Amino acid sequence: MSGCAKAPEGERKIDGVRFESEIAKAGDALEISYRVVNDADVDVYVVDSVPTYANGALQPASADTVYVLGSGGSRAEVSKRVFALPDDTSFAQMPAVGWVELAAGEELERNVRVPLPLEEYRPFDDDSVPQLPDPVEEVIFCVGVLDLRDLYPDGVPAEVTGLAHSDSAAEAQQIFCSDPASLG
């Protein structure tokens, strides 16, 4: 497995968390395997489920749903992460991602199957995130890992199982991304 664990410019860096991933094209789908290892001295939260919409209504978050958007040039980003709230945007109910708590010393392994051709699925319908390119020539997979000590100084309450997209959520997140994989 291979992957990169660089925090983008200005993003949070969580020392001691490692990410590995592999992307393979298998017929009419992408098979993505990933592992997050928490060697930090603090519990972290790995974004594990993304909300879906059906018939105009928000559905429960699903471990099989991912965001699919542009990542510059002919690259697509397939991801499970939170996004900052776009300017001048409001929601009656803000979409929220679910997470898995990853205690210090633990690791998480997951597999995701994403149908091809990729279909755009973005957290917001504005231009706050890049649109999916046409054609898509390569893809990266990204996952968000949250350090929530600033948001919950007394610890995350047991009944809190996810987080809405917001500036504060995005600031608490390190985004880990795979190396690019060719779709050719």
Features:
184 residues, mainly beta, nine-stranded mixed β-sheet, three-stranded antiparallel β-sheet, 1 helix, disordered N terminus
Structure notes:
- The protein has about 180 residues and is an all-beta fold.
- Helix content is about 5%, strand content about 45%.
- The strands form 2 sheets. Strands 3, 4, 5, 6, 7, 9, 10, 11 and 12 form a 9-stranded mixed beta sheet that branches.
- The longest helix has 5 residues, at about 165-170.
Summed up, what is this model?
This protein has 184 residues and is mainly β.
Helical residue percent band: under 10%
Main structural class = mainly beta
Strand content: 35-45%
- Number-wise, the strands total 12
Mean pLDDT, all residues: 86
The low-pLDDT segments are 1-10
Any idea what the radius of gyration is?
16 Å
SSE series? EEEEEEEEEEHEE
Q: How many helices?
A: 1
Distance between the termini: 20 Å
Broad shape: globular
Main beta sheet, described?
9 strands, mixed
